[in-house]
Amino acid sequence: MRRSKRLVLLSKFLSENPNRIFTLKYFGDKYDAAKSSISEDLNIIKDAFHEAGEGTLETIPGAAGGVRFRIKRPAQAIEKFVLELSSILSDRSRIIPGGYLYMTDVIFSPEYSSKIGEIFAQLFVDEEPTCVLTVETKGIPLALMTARALGVPLVVARRDSRVTEGPSVNISYISGSSRRIQNMALPTRALSEKARVLIVDDFMKGGGTARGMSELVREFRAEVVGVAVLVATAYPEEKLVKNYTSLLVLEKIDAERGEVRLKPVKIPIKKEGV
Amino acid sequence: MRRSKRLVLLSKFLSENPNRIFTLKYFGDKYDAAKSSISEDLNIIKDAFHEAGEGTLETIPGAAGGVRFRIKRPAQAIEKFVLELSSILSDRSRIIPGGYLYMTDVIFSPEYSSKIGEIFAQLFVDEEPTCVLTVETKGIPLALMTARALGVPLVVARRDSRVTEGPSVNISYISGSSRRIQNMALPTRALSEKARVLIVDDFMKGGGTARGMSELVREFRAEVVGVAVLVATAYPEEKLVKNYTSLLVLEKIDAERGEVRLKPVKIPIKKEGV
């Protein structure tokens, strides 16, 4: 196979399998080429991805080593995207009577959810999550795309335990905003001990749901390595979880006056970015 | 920018944006190259994608024309994947007391859900769906990945109308298997008139849920262009929807004896495939 064709197929493969390690031998067999040729291909791809701000191609030494593509966008590109999101979501037509913000089309869009998932993955990849957890329903697309970008499985807690999923761990928790008792259930086989769990959701008000998920994780003797949400409300300032990252803060929503104010959060990415 | 770098970035971009049309001018501006160079790049990519069975790069003539990457895997590759799925899901440890099959880990896995979504997209792309519809919860990952592969939005019906999503259309329907009355709701702003809707779900027994979704679509004066499910049960043979496509048929599940039998469905793809 000629170099140009290998470059095309390798680039496609790597971009579809982020954060996973592949050996040169694997690619050599796959594309019927010498390891030295693959190595040269990967150098070209590495430079192209790096220069375009797509991410890095890392070489992992050792017996379990190989190459790994990591999505790493420059801070400016992320800021620009979050600003665009902020502007889209600030449209007055999105205000729902009762003071809610209609975000469903954005978080269910494959285009936006994959970009948001890639940002969450980039922010938490160094914590080495082994799975992503959310609770049904609206967090699922963001959580799935985050899991995809991290190359790890997605686990979804349900509001009730389901007969179709076998034995489960169930917890009750107090919703931070409505102060009502809520339930959450996860099949016992869904999460393993010592899992490193990244919690993802679309929206946080009081933080009760995220805290509920944390408690659920603890019941499995697993560990929460981060909490990522798309939008957090400015009030209450004190959330029921200590550490979380949101891309946007909802500072104000007034259905009467038709006002909504969202603020992009300063994303904690080193400025050198790439 | 040198050709090799353009090939890398173009391949990544196209594979991330399937089924969408881009002009040569768009790429020329993006990669700072003459249209003639871009055209040569695209020919190389087209051949590589075609030979590797990844898909086709089509040239759309006319004012709204450009190039479009379509995922088109050869029939054998799809059959092999469905066979692998069948074998994974036939594991006895997946039998849940009550005669259910535990599939959650597979349908929530980014790797499997994206491959299944790509197959659904390939099977229905010629129907030109303008959106993908599912109902919460377990169908969401497959539906999202199908929408991604088609380059169209995802719409998710809820079991109850939500105050946070504004006015909605609500329907009641009879579940085909349990014969119970169920509810389904979709915000009025979620689906437009004349939408061409591909319905996606993980599992079909009686077909009541798919029929409910079809009725919901009709309330919006939109049109159902297809119904795709991962697994359909062999019994009841008569489903409440006439036309549907499933990748697998669940012929038997017996919790007492620890038996489960799944059969891959002959996929209706022309044998020449690519």
Q: Report mean pLDDT of chain A, rounded to a whole number.
A: 94
Chain oligomer state: homodimer
The largest pleated sheet of chain A is described as: 6 strands, mixed
What is the total tally of β strands of chain A?
A: 13
- What is the name of the CATH architecture of the largest domain in chain A? 3-Layer(aba) Sandwich
Through-space gap between termini of chain A? 31 Å
Could you tell me the strand content of chain A as a percent range?
Answer: 25-35%
Topology summary:
Two copies of one chain form a homodimer.
Chain A: H1 3-16, E1 21-22, H2 24-31, H3 35-51, E2 55-60, E3 66-71, H4 75-89, E4 95-96, E5 100-101, H5 104-107, H6 110-124, E6 131-135, H7 140-150, E7 154-157, E8 168-174, E9 181-187, E10 196-204, H8 208-219, E11 223-233, E12 245-254, E13 259-264
Parallel strand pairs in A: 6-7, 6-10, 10-11, 11-12
Antiparallel strand pairs in A: 1-3, 2-3, 4-5, 8-9, 12-13
Helix pairs in contact in A: 1-3, 2-3, 6-7
Describe this structure in words.
Two copies of one chain form a homodimer. In chain A, α2 (24-31) packs across α3 and α6 packs across α7. By secondary structure, chain A is α/β, with parallel strands linked by helices. The first copy, chain A, has helices at residues 3-16, 24-31, 35-51, 75-89, 104-107, 110-124, 140-150, 208-219; strands at 21-22, 55-60, 66-71, 95-96, 100-101, 131-135, 154-157, 168-174, 181-187, 196-204, 223-233, 245-254, 259-264. In chain A, the strands form four sheets. Chain A has a six-stranded mixed β-sheet, with helices on both faces. Chain A has a three-stranded antiparallel β-sheet with strand order 1-3-2. In chain A, strands 4-5 form a two-stranded antiparallel ribbon. The radius of gyration of chain A is 21 Å and the shape is globular. Chain A folds into two domains: 3-71, Orthogonal Bundle (Arc Repressor Mutant, subunit A); 75-264, Rossmann fold (3-Layer(aba) Sandwich), CATH 3.40.50. Chain A starts with a helix and ends in a 10-residue tail after the last strand. Chains A and B meet through α1, α3, α6, α7 and β7 of A and α1, α3, α6, α7 and β7 of B. Chains A, B: This is Pur operon repressor. Chains A, B: Residues 114-249 form the Phosphoribosyltransferase domain. Chains A, B: GO terms for molecular function: DNA binding. Chains A, B: Residues 2-69 form the Bacterial purine repressor N-terminal domain.
